[in-house]
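From the pipeline queue, job 12 of 40. The input is one protein chain; the requested action is below.

Action: predict structure.
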Amino acid sequence: MQRLVVYFHYDPRGQADPACRFAVREIQKQARAVWFVTNGRLDAESRGWARDAGLHLLERENTGFDVGAYRQVLLALGRPALDEWDEIVLMNYTLAGPVFPLGEMFAAMDARALDFWGLSRHYAMRSRRFGGRGGAVPEHLQSHLLAVRRPMYDDFFAYWQAMALPRSYEESVRCHEARFTAHFAALGYRWDSFLDGERWRGIFLNPLMACPRELLQQERCPFFKRRSFFTPYGDELRRTDGLAARRLYDWLKAETSYPVDELLRGLLPAYPLSAVTRSLHPYPLLPADPAGPAPVTVLPPALLREGAALAPDRFYWLELPLPETEPARRYEAAARWTPAQQAAAVRLLEQNPLWGLIGPALPLYPGCEAARLRAWRRDRPAVQARMAELGLQLPLDAADPPPLPAGGVLLRGAAFPGGLPPVERPEDLWLLPLAAQQGGWAVALAQDAAQAAARADQLGVLLAAQLSPQGAARALARALRSALRR
């Protein structure tokens, strides 16, 4: 089958990251030509990659989201040029993979008598955000991968000619993604998704986000969403048990050759570290058995005032300042690791090449969490100023602080190729996880078995309180206060 692929890309840094290149390289095997259209300008290295890969490159103004990118390419080609192709595929960078050979999916869909198809579907729902005034969002193919065939080219081209450029993500969903399937189905065109349309009906609205591991395991879905690893965790808890991303990551590491750590190294500098951490749950159990002498260099705090160079093949232990108030101070002091525990943590870092730092999880005493949140609200403006001085270009969550261990931290030297940033004031400690994040390194917070068990019980108590009438009333009051502040 003669296939044209239009691949939409966006990166505020102008980079085609390794995961994007992997996907494009694989989709090229299924296409005679690939247009790579990016909203913005690629950096010189990424532009050279696109040229060497034999892609048709279009760099355009960052307007209209994916809708604007697809529209510009298709209208530039013109209606007669579409007849050169048996199938036109619109795909975007939000998909990660493929995990399985793409020929499997295309062969399966080539054998089906369809006019258009997609990778996956979103079931019908009601949403004022995505459904407009009426709130109705129909069942539809998701726009991250859509394929159309010759019989509908006239109507397909007319669709893009009439398309207005959306001004927001919500408008993009309303005017294109949620509309495309119903629009062409009403014209009599036959459609379906590669993934089974009935398996998850009534269970999840968006299976590709809710149960990606199961889709890969059970249906050999070739792709998953990058967003699995940085979506707001509160949203996930409203829809799922919050484990989808961690289950997906573990399965990809254990059962496939897909370079998921390369994907995450590219994602980490682009999203708040707190969001990636909450999605992946890097909270390992610290082994209880003594691990022997620690191959660790202890860094005296005084050495940090002007920064410190670290050897890439070494591990370093640094004690962190304690809270000023009791009993939070006592709890964090007790959390500091012994040399044997530091040795056990080194082994955890050796087993997990994505982690650049590891340290004790924050004690469960509520005062410790409250002190940490107060410190972040107070320190964030100063942290942003220091980041600008050091050239750290990272997004920060205004309410959710970057993960910072309690009492002490074990550092992997390779995560700090430029050395540790100077730590002259207490607020500079936030720079430790952020400097590692810039290079694509994550943070792990370890706990012992007793702490993990207590955390589970604490969560049960909090959920029960939240679900009670009194808890619901308090949640409503908080939401109203937040709305009034905004």
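Job complete. The mean pLDDT is 92.
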